[in-house]
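Ticket opened by: R.M.
Priority: normal
Category: complex prediction / small molecule

The reporter submitted a protein together with pyridoxal-5'-phosphate and asked that the result be attached to this ticket for the collaborator who will pick it up next week. Submitted input follows.
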Amino acid sequence: MNQEQAIIAQTEAVSARNYKPLPVVLHRGEGVWVWDVEGRRYLDCLSAYSSLNQGHRHPKIIQALYEQAERLTLTSRAFHNDRMGGFLELLCKTVGMEMALPMNTGAEAVETAVKAARKWGYTKKGVAPGKAEIIVCNQNFHGRTTTAVAMSSESGSREHFAPFTPGFVHVPFGDAAAMEAAITENTVAVLFEPIQGEAGIVIPPEGYLTAARRICTDNNVLFILDEIQTGFARTGHLLCHQHEPEAKPDMLILGKALGGGVYPVSAIATSREIMSVFQPGDHGSTFAGNPLASAVGAAAISVVLDEDLAERSRELGTRLMAGLRGIGSPIVTEIRGRGLFVGIEIDRPARPFCEALMQRGVLCKETHEHVIRLAPPLVIEAAEIDWLVEQFAAVL
Ligand SMILES: *Cc1c(COP(=O)(O)O)cnc(C)c1O
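Result attached by the on-call engineer:
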C-alpha cells in the first residue's frame, strides 16, 4: 500500500460515506493548481464548488487571515468587534444592498433567508399565522440542513429524512407562468438559483429573472436569489442576476467565494426595511460575523473587485467554451455556460471521464450523472485554459 492508499483507507475507516471522492489525496494548493501527496500536480476545475474563485491561498486573503489571527479571532455577537462593520459595509456596497446579516455556511444563510421572508410575511404583509408559503424550483440545491432538504425535489436528498419543514411550493425552473400561477395570498417569497449549479449548470430562458422580478413586485412577494454558487464573479458578472439588468432581487443569499476558499463566510443582504424584521434574540450564530471571518470576507471581496475577476470570467469562459466546441466530439450532447461556469453534457456517465481527466492532471466532478462541471478558479490564465481544452480533447 502506498502513502495515498494508506490515507484513503484510514479516512474511509473512520469517516461517514456521505461523499464519494475521486481517489486523489491533496496536500498543497496554490492559485489554480493543487498537488497530491505523491507530488503530482492538477488543475483544480471544481474550485470547491466555486468557493475558490480567488484561487488557492490568495496572498492577500492569507495575509488578512494571519494579521487578524494575531489580534482577535472570536468575540461572539454578545460584544461588538472592530471588523464586522467594515466587512458588511463593503459587502453591501459591492452587491448594492443596504444591510447584511452574516452567517457561516451557505445552508445557514438559506435558513436565515427563509426566516426573514416568513417574518416579513407575518409582520409586514399580514399573512395569517403559520400559513406562509415560499415558492422554490424543482431540481434546486439550497444545502443539506433539514429545511434546505425540505426545499429540495431530489428524492436522493430527501429519502429517509422526513418529516420535512412545510411551507414550500415547487414549480418548474425557468417557467415564469408556473411561478405566477403558484402565487397565493400566503406567498411570502420566491426563492431560486439564477443558474442551477448542482442540477448540472441549468440556465433558465432569457428574461426569466426579469419576469420573476415583475411577478414578485406585482404580488407583494419577496424575490430572493440564492447566489451562493453563482456569486462573486463566477458567471462573468459580479452577481449572476446582473446578466438581466432589470432583475435586482429583494434579497441575496451569498456564501462560498465570500470566504475566499479560506474560511466559511456566508450572508444574506437585503434592504433596511426587510432586515428590520429581525429583533434581538430572534436569530443568531455563535461564530457568525467573527473578526477572523470578517477580515477574510473583506479581503475575499477586495480580490474579486481589484483583479476584475468578473471580466476574466467572461473572457476566459468564452475562450473555454469555444475551445471545447472546437473539439467536435460526437459523445458531447451540449456545452453550456456563463463565464467560467460551464457544463459539458455527454451521452453516457461522466464519472469515468472525470477519472481519466484526473490521470491527465485535471480535477473535476460529474454532476447529475451525465454532466461534467468546469468551474476553475477565476485567476486562471488563457494558456491554462488552452491546456485544459487539450486534456479534454484527449479524453473525449
Ligand atoms: C453550496 C450551496 C449551498 C449550501 O452551501 P453550504 O456552504 O454547503 O451549506 C446552497 N445553495 C447553493 C446554490 C449552493 O451552491
